[in-house]
Amino acid sequence: MSFSTSNSSTTLSSTFYLTGIPGYEEFHHWISIPFCLLYLAGIMGNCTILHIVWTDPRLHELMYYFLAMLSLTDMGISLPTMITLFRVLWSISKEIQFNICVVQMFFIHTFSFTESSVLLAMALDRYVAICHPLRYATILTPKLITKIRIAAMLRSAIAIIPLLAHLSFFPFCHSHILSHSYCLHQDLIHLACADTRFNVVYGLVLITVLWDMDSLGILVSYVFIILSVLRIVSHEGRLKALNTCVSHICAVLILYVPMIGLSIIHRLAKHSSPLIHIFMAHIYLLVPPVLNPIIYSVKIKKIHQGILHLFFLKNISSTVK
């Protein structure tokens, strides 16, 4: 391997080297099996959700449109990493060009921020449905939902562009070996032999403004939801209202807990075992796309019925014919 060490060399032609599971290279082919199963489960699950919401007229409601948006963002996070992960685990190639690395980072970080925005929108949906049920249709109109979709995507994409564009000015004269089997911004800036304060500060501001504001909005929404639920006289009514929020709460925890864990490890446990960093990074990218379709399929009756109709009733009807 020959690494570019010249400060004058353009980063667009730089080659970086991805990392699999250090110390377990001889088992990479076997390790790829569970990863393959998880990716397939995530893709099939989210595609199933999208198909059911698209084809079932009963699901042409705002709540299910938000769920379809969540499935799209989950796939947008996992698909860009899948190709490079299996190229490494199957010993095809560990090399990745700088421009491809930046594109991969753009998709990963953009869809991560977008998923946070979608979860905030879903929290507002639950707030309006529980606290203002009679005004639900007038507040959350299809036109407003379209604006929310566009705003969530544009906000994330535009915010991440300056961070990634600034990388093109960095000379990477240190080791070009990345810590993961895909590109993350916090991983790449550690390899630059330049002043990276802008990227560090801008990245922290970005996380604070986007993730922290979204999580605060979700928290405030649930404070009002709980206060509204406590006003319901019947115990059954309270449980019914809270039950509509269980799947959304699980989706929030599935996204934020691995995200917070990965951030803490990158900042406070830099000298810990590389396996911990790799393990947390894969949980952050793989767990939400796999678990979200399962949770919503189990907890939401119409989705559950749609899946049964798609996979079982059609097979039964074709057998009868």
Automatic annotation (TrEMBL):
Q: Which GO terms describe its biological process?
A: cellular response to lipid
Which species does this protein come from?
A: Rhinopithecus roxellana
MF terms per GO, please?
A: G protein-coupled receptor activity; olfactory receptor activity
Topology in the lipid bilayer: Multi-pass membrane protein
Alphabetized InterPro entries for the sequence: GPCR_Rhodpsn, GPCR_Rhodpsn_7TM, Olfact_rcpt, OR51/52/56-like
Q: Residue limits of the G-protein coupled receptors family 1 profile domain?
A: 45-296
A single Gene Ontology CC term: plasma membrane
Q: Where in the cell is it found?
A: Cell membrane; Membrane
Q: What is its main location?
A: membrane
What is the protein name for this chain? Olfactory receptor
Q: Which PANTHER family match?
A: OLFACTORY RECEPTOR, OLFACTORY RECEPTOR 56B1-RELATED
Q: What keywords are assigned to this protein?
A: Cell membrane, G-protein coupled receptor, Membrane, Olfaction, Receptor, Sensory transduction, Transducer, Transmembrane, Transmembrane helix
The family this protein is said to belong to: Belongs to the G-protein coupled receptor 1 family.
Under SUPFAM superfamilies, the record lists:
Family A G protein-coupled receptor-like
UniProt superkingdom = Eukaryota
Q: Where are the transmembrane segments?
A: 27-50, 62-86, 106-129, 150-172, 215-233, 245-269, 275-295
